[in-house]
Amino acid sequence: AQQSLCHVLQEKSAVLPRLAEEDLVQFMVKLSVEGFPQAVKVRRMQKYSGTVVRAPEWINESPDSPWKPGTAVCAEVARHFGGTGEVLLLQSNCGQMRFQPGDRVTFCLPKASEIGNLPEAKLVMLAQTDRPAGSVLACCRLHLPRPVGDGKQLAPLNLDLHAFSSKVVLSGLTVDVGEAELMRFFSKQGATKGIVAHARGCSFASITFPTCTDVATFVGRSAHAFADDK
Largest CB tally within 10 Å, which of 7, 74, 122, 176? Predict the structure, then answer.
């Protein structure tokens, strides 16, 4: 009986996906015995690589849909599904990233497209770009919770963020914000250095990342989760 149980456990472990960092996964959530959420029925998604043909464009014709979809082309999609390998790029699937034609991207296709429609790329991330170093990769607002200070919860920061090839620049800081507080969050997103400059009437910060890909990974998501080290 013990050998049979061992054999069953080995079979179950054999079908579990061996995951690596940056893998894209799909899963369901259920509560553990202790009441914490845990991922179940984990499935690794196929990651595709393609080239942006037409970037999503801000047209603001409708408050419900201010972005005109873009497209990318992928030879692997053409081999798997036939056709031209063209996929739809919705800005809502690109985080805060602003793509340009020629950018190399990665993405997944969680579900098949309807007949006559292009498949919709999800979790679109920048893999490589030929843009100059000073080009803006993203421009957005950052809502950043603050730690408890003097026994009371401080109001969150609402900062203007511009992302470049190796750094993000923040404006709108309050005078009591320093490098340590910002790096509390940004170090967990891959940043290596933070510099804060306070001046009369305005304060700025520059957050440095190792590579353009690290910056793109940060702005490619609309929300981030992090926990303080204990």
Answer: 74
Residues 152 and 109 in one domain: no
56, 68 contact by CB (below 8 A) = yes
How many structural domains comprise the chain?
A: 2
Residue 150 CA to chain centroid, in angstroms?
33
Judge contact between 125 and 217, C-beta under 8 A: yes
Task: List, in order, residues 6 or more apart from 152 with CB less than 8 Å away.
Answer: none
Give the phi and the psi of residue 178 in degrees, each rounded to 5: -125, 180
Please return the burial class of 39, using the count of CB atoms within 10 Å of its CB with bins 0-12, 13-18 and 19+. Answer: exposed
User: Buried b / exposed e across 115-151, counting CB within 10 Å, b at 16+?
Assistant: eeebbbbbbbbbeebeeeeeeebbebebebebeeeee
| pTM greater than 0.90 (yes/no) | no
Are residue 56 and residue 94 in the same domain, yes or no?
yes
CATH code, domain with 160 = 3.30.70
Q: Which domain holds residue 87?
A: 48-128
Question: Which residue among 128, 146, 177 closes a domain?
Answer: 128
pLDDT of residue 2: 44
| Residues 6+ away with beta carbon under 8 Å from 210 | 166, 190, 192
How big is the CA angle at 53 (ends 80 and 209), to the nearest 5 degrees?
A: 95
Distance of CA 207 to the CA centre of its chain: 17
Q: Are 218 and 190 in contact (CB under 8 A)?
A: yes
pLDDT in tens, 152-181: 888 899 999 999 999 999 999 999 899 999
Give the tokens for residue 26: 């799909």
